[in-house]
Design goal:
- By secondary structure, this protein is mostly helical.
- The chain has one domain (2-50).
- The protein has three helices and no strands.
- Helix 2 (11-28) runs antiparallel to helix 3 (34-50).
- The protein starts with a helix and ends in a 13-residue tail after the last helix.
- The mean pLDDT is 76.
Length: 63
């Protein structure tokens, strides 16, 4: 449980949640179309959660 909370405090998680909150707010307040919000949130989640940290590569490859 403690490790899960610590992982939530990682920078990439905070950035992702902040960006999601901003775009959801803009979408709900009709300042941005929902399609734009969905696209941007999808891109942010894809980038941050599919990106490997440099130290996490267990295969030994340098991609």
């Amino acid at each position: 449980m403690k490790n899960a909370f610590i992982n939530l405090l990682k920078v990439k998680t905070i950035i992702t949640l902040a960006i999601t909150g901003v775009f959801v707010y803009l979408s709900v307040s009709n300042k941005l179309p929902i399609e734009t919000t969905t696209m941007v949130i999808g891109m942010v989640f894809t980038y941050y959660f599919n990106k490997k940290d440099k130290g996490d590569d267990k295969n030994g490859s340098n991609e």
